[in-house]
Amino acid sequence: MPETYLYSIGTPGQPWGAAERDVWRARQVRQRSYADDVLTAIEALRGRFDVEMYGDVVYADAQHPAERFPLRALRSRHWQPGLPSVLVTGGVHGYETSGVHGALRFVDTQAERFAGRANLLVVPCVSPWAYERFQRWNFDAIDPNRAFREASPAQESAALMRLVAPRHGQFAAHIDLHETTDTDESEYRPAVAARDGKVFKPGSIPDGFYLVDDTDNPQPKFQQAIIEAASRVTHIAPADEKNEIIGSPVVAPGVIRYALKQLGLCAGISGARYTTTTEVYPDSPSASPVQCVEAQVAAVQAAVEFVCTASAGRSLMED
């Protein structure tokens, strides 16, 4: 294997143990504040929305004092059982900034437009420790977005599942906000290969916005509505020469599919009929980080509008 593909932690071909995880963790530097960026923004919205406290994430080891991160969600103030409900999640991967700030901006600037039409539960930052360190993994070198399963080893994933569990099957839609960045290829993918004792195989980064639908429950009209809204803000990622995006066949412009529940992905936790994962590309020469936040807001708006229209249509048919 060429030396350039070797990760700087661990022994090639051998999965990491506790010592390697300790080395990796020691390299993670706090670069921003979850309390300042997220909790303060949530508190500023408390006068207009309910704030739901759904737990804490606590991390510590012999080298690191305990850090406690309060977990908070925003909820429509007048929740009405007869309305369609939409779950919005961001920051499952803490370094994917536009998901966090897109969720917060949607609540601040757009959510009240849907009062009396939809119930909204918005979790802006699922993974606070990783948010502060621009990391994909949590403190334990676990990817939360592969850990949404029973007896999850990731505190963040387990806490979100507990929040959603009483409402499971009651959501019409769940939109999970993500980014694909250049560091996926330069840092994360080599790191995950090293952690798991595998060979890193270089790939490519899609240039633009795309969606991940559910293989087991595809909803092409829902995906199309979001793609159309996002395309008015940023460009849609083209397929590669194999008609793929990140190794998966493109089933419609800007849309691929994953087995959400089987892979332990966040978008598979709600039991909603309509589910999707957004991906924006803030490192694109044709987009900016601000555009990416705006694309996330447009995607959430389109998702909520879609279920409101679908619900109204069903009601008319029943009448």
UniProtKB/TrEMBL annotation:
GO terms for molecular function: hydrolase activity, acting on ester bonds; metallocarboxypeptidase activity; zinc ion binding. Its cofactor is Zn(2+). It comes from the Bacteria. One of its GO terms (biological process) is proteolysis. Pfam families: AstE_AspA_cat. Keywords: Hydrolase, Metal-binding, Zinc. Residues 30-307 form the Peptidase M14 domain. The active site is at residue 279. The keyword Ion transport does not apply. Belongs to the peptidase M14 family. This is Peptidase M14 domain-containing protein. It comes from Acidovorax delafieldii 2AN.
